[in-house]
Design a protein that fits this description.
250 residues; Rossmann fold; N-terminal domain of TfIIb; four-stranded antiparallel β-sheet; methyltransferase activity; Methyltransf_25
Length: 250
């Protein structure tokens, strides 16, 4: 689905995610977590987050499956400013160690099997320096809104954009159906398939990758994650080397 046409319109149809009140807290938290180290973004897309993070002085490298999306990013910044490797986030390796690896806006769900998602966690861990952090932003599936016998949940219903998500509870598969009402009166349809992951399942994937849970928020602003939260920003840490751990003092 991430072809030339999608890449060309991606920034426009995702305009709300570029709003300062959305993007600002995202970059603020990621910059704090990166500290003085470098960051690696899986599924960097057109650079919505990676470019402003690099502008903060954090060295950023990206991995992106879609050559079309990567080409769109390249119109904004050059290779020296933000290098990007075209490849999948479950297996692609880039040189160096990073203090931060991150995935935003549900991107890990583009991996449509549990095995691929586990491999993504392991790939993140391989790229992290000891003490480094892996951050994932992900939605919580709204399955409580599904009555018996119903498989679709309305996600967005404004005048220009309708989104319906259909769920297969047996396989944890989700298909997002998007309908855009164009200015000329026509309706454009697009869909994408995903595999949803529960927060506790993410924690188990992190454990399999040798990562330890550090924090979980409802959003990038640090608001508490609760039973009613519709999304989460989760942080796991790669344990520091034994030599990096200072003994306790009296």
């Amino acid at each position: 689905m991430w072809d030339d046409e999608t890449a060309e319109h991606y920034d426009t149809i995702s305009a709300e995610k570029f709003a300062p009140e959305v993007l600002g807290p995202t970059v603020d938290l990621l910059a704090r977590l990166a500290g003085s180290g470098a960051a690696l973004e899986f599924a960097i897309g057109t650079g919505r987050v990676g470019i402003p993070l690099a502008a903060r002085g954090v060295p950023v490298t990206g991995i992106e499956l879609s050559a079309s999306m990567a080409a769109r990013l390249r119109r904004k910044v050059d290779e020296a400013t933000l290098p990007v490797v075209v490849g999948d986030m479950a297996t692609t390796a880039v040189p160096g160690e990073f203090s931060l690896v991150f995935l935003v806006w549900n991107s890990i769900s583009n991996l449509r099997t549990q095995a691929e998602q586990v491999a993504c966690f392991r790939n993140a861990a391989r790229h992290l320096a000891p003490g480094g952090r892996f951050v994932v932003e992900l939605w919580v599936p709204p399955l409580r809104r599904l009555p018996p016998g119903q498989s679709a949940v309305p996600i967005r219903t404004d005048d220009r954009h309708l989104v319906l998500d259909t769920y297969d509870l047996a396989t944890q598969r989700c298909t997002s159906h998007h309908y855009w009402h164009e200015a000329d009166g026509t309706v454009r349809h697009g869909s994408g398939e995903f595999r949803y992951i529960w927060p506790a399942e993410c924690d188990l994937m992190a454990q399999l990758a040798g990562l330890e849970p550090e924090s979980r928020f409802a959003d990038w602003d640090g608001s508490p994650f609760t039973t009613d939260s519709e999304s989460h920003v989760s942080v796991w840490r790669k344990p520091p080397r034994a030599t990096d751990q200072r003994p306790a003092t009296c």
